[in-house]
């Protein structure tokens, strides 16, 4: 991979390289000691914390999602002046939505909208959740009618999306989507998103003030994302269908639960992260 990266850089001749993954960042940062003529490297972390695989030496600047992450870099020897807490870069559409949004609707009444990111790929992380997603929607029929609308994104048509449609039997409170091209427009209408703790989806949700119902802690950086979001009040960890439905039932009864989580999600969110990151880089990290 190192040879291919150097070949690409020699061909493109960039003034600077932005890395959103630790592996190429580590390779280039290390290679710069051997070849100081290589362009400077900027690290942009796409999780709420930074793991030890992100290099410190050989990196000109860091963009991170939280003060906690910035503090961890400083502890490892990074220059605080080279770190910016701009957030995880998300589509600039989120910033446009924020500019045009109204205050949180304190008079919001049911039905509340829940987005479920089910995944349609036949990969282990997704396949293992399919039965749980089906069971969640089947069991949700026991919640008071008219309280919730379920929006399920399945990705491209698959055996799972077919099974799901058969299981909900054309219920009016369940909407099934295949591949969504305008995802942020869908997400912004939601009151909750049910998902695993991936950095980008959580950054998008927080940027739009949508609390996360996290169905797994994951491992590594995802576990750190889960801990960060829950500890800062932007979501809750609910690792079973029963717990999810119990939580939503309580939230329907007590709307202050929803309002409190939305307020904290907005506090965490950084919808202008991409703009700030780009401006800083184009200004020469000044």
How large a portion of the residues is in β-strands, by DSSP E? Answer: 5-15%
The residue-averaged pLDDT reads: 92
Query: Percent of residues in helical segments?
Result: 40-55%
Task: State the distance separating the first and last CA atoms.
Answer: 31 Å
Number of strands: 10
User: Which architecture of the largest domain would the CATH scheme give at its second level?
Assistant: 3-Layer(aba) Sandwich
CATH superfamily of the largest domain: Glycogen Phosphorylase B
**Radius of gyration over all CA atoms, rounded:** 21 Å
The largest β sheet comes out as: 6 strands, parallel
In terms of per-residue confidence, which ranges show pLDDT below 50 for 5 or more consecutive residues? none
Number of helices: 13
Indicate the structural class: alpha/beta
> How many domains in all?
2
Q: Judging from the principal axes of the Cα atoms, what is the shape?
A: elongated
- CATH class of the largest domain equals Alpha Beta
Fold-level CATH name of the largest domain? Rossmann fold
The largest beta-sheet arranges its strands as: 7-6-5-8-9-10
Q: How do the SSEs run, as a string of H and E?
A: HEHEEHEHEHHEHEHEHEHEHHH
């Amino acid at each position: 991979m190192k040879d291919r990266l150097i070949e690409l850089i020699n061909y493109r001749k960039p003034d600077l390289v932005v890395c959103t993954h630790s592996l190429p960042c580590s390779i280039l940062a290390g290679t710069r000691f051997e070849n100081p003529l290589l362009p400077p490297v900027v690290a942009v972390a796409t999780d709420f914390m930074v793991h030890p695989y992100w290099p410190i030496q050989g990196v000109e600047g860091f963009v991170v999602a939280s003060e906690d992450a910035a503090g961890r870099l400083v502890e490892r020897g990074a220059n605080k002046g080279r770190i910016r807490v701009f957030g995880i870069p998300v589509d600039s559409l989120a910033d446009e939505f924020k500019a045009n949004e109204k205050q949180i609707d304190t008079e919001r009444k049911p039905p509340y909208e829940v987005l479920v990111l089910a995944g349609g790929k036949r990969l282990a992380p997704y396949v293992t959740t399919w039965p749980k997603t089906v069971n969640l929607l089947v069991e949700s029929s026991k919640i008071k009618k008219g309280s919730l609308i379920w929006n399920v994104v399945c990705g491209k048509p698959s055996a799972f999306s077919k099974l799901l449609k058969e299981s909900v039997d054309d219920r009016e409170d369940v909407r099934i989507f295949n591949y969504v091209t305008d995802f942020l427009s869908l997400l912004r209408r939601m009151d909750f998103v049910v998902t695993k703790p991936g950095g980008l989806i959580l950054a998008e949700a927080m940027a739009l003030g949508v609390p996360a119902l996290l169905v797994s802690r994951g491992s590594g950086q995802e576990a750190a994302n889960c801990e960060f979001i829950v500890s800062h009040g932007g979501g809750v960890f609910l690792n079973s269908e029963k717990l999810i439905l119990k939580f939503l039932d309580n939230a329907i009864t007590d709307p202050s639960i929803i309002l409190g989580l939305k307020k904290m999600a907005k506090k965490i969110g950084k919808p202008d992260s991409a703009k700030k990151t780009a401006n800083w880089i184009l200004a020469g990290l000044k």
